[in-house]
């Protein structure tokens, strides 16, 4: 039979754990923070570079005088997600603040589309510049279930632009598609 050793003798023989090497741990943390800062700086430089490539895009129109007096066809509150080159859902446009995601208040009248973005640049799309509206599932930086985004195509300068919006009440999207398509047909009919 084995003899039992009292527990206090076993505890006395144990060595305490090694003390953590704080200098190595701090070095790793500082190195990781420098790497994160460097990646952020590279992303920022890429954003600026893309903006300089798109510097030929004309300034955005501002809301005309008397716009608020016109009859509102539709209004919407929700999110503005991005603007891209029409037909290329990943080619984000960052010039003039079009790449900045924000809250949005849209107002559609016979004069055009007023885009009010708290915290970002507001802009106005004249009715003659509107081309179409459709429901889609994605635009640069945002993918939703089928039909989750309202995409409005409009002309600015010599470029066609797709802008993506999501209403707080997505059931409003089909009415917007119908109203914009009707407005573009009416505008095209009067232009001829």
UniProtKB/TrEMBL annotation:
Top-level lineage group: Bacteria
Keyword entries, A-Z: Membrane, Transmembrane, Transmembrane helix
Residue span, PH domain: 58-180
Chain segments annotated as transmembrane: 26-43
InterPro entries hit by this protein: PH_bac
Pfam families listed in its UniProt record: bPH_11
Protein name as it appears in the record: PH domain-containing protein
Organism name: Streptomyces atratus
């Amino acid at each position: 039979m084995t003899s039992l050793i009292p527990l206090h003798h076993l505890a006395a023989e144990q060595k305490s754990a090694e003390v953590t090497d704080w200098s190595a741990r701090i070095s790793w943390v500082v190195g990781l923070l420098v790497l994160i800062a460097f990646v952020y700086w590279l992303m920022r430089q890429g954003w600026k570079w893309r903006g300089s490539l798109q510097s030929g895009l004309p300034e955005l129109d501002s809301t005309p005088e008397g716009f608020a007096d016109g009859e509102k066809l539709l209004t919407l509150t929700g999110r503005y997600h991005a603007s891209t080159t029409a037909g290329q859902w990943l080619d984000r446009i960052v010039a003039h603040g079009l790449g900045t995601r924000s809250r949005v208040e849209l107002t559609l009248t016979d004069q055009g589309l007023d885009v009010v973005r708290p915290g970002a640049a507001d802009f106005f799309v004249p009715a003659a510049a509107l081309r179409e509206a459709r429901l889609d599932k994605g635009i640069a930086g945002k993918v939703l279930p089928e039909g989750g985004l309202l995409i409005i195509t409009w002309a600015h300068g010599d470029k066609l632009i797709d802008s993506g919006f999501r209403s707080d009440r997505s059931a409003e999207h089909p009415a917007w598609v119908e109203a914009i398509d009707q407005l573009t047909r009416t505008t095209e009919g009067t232009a001829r």
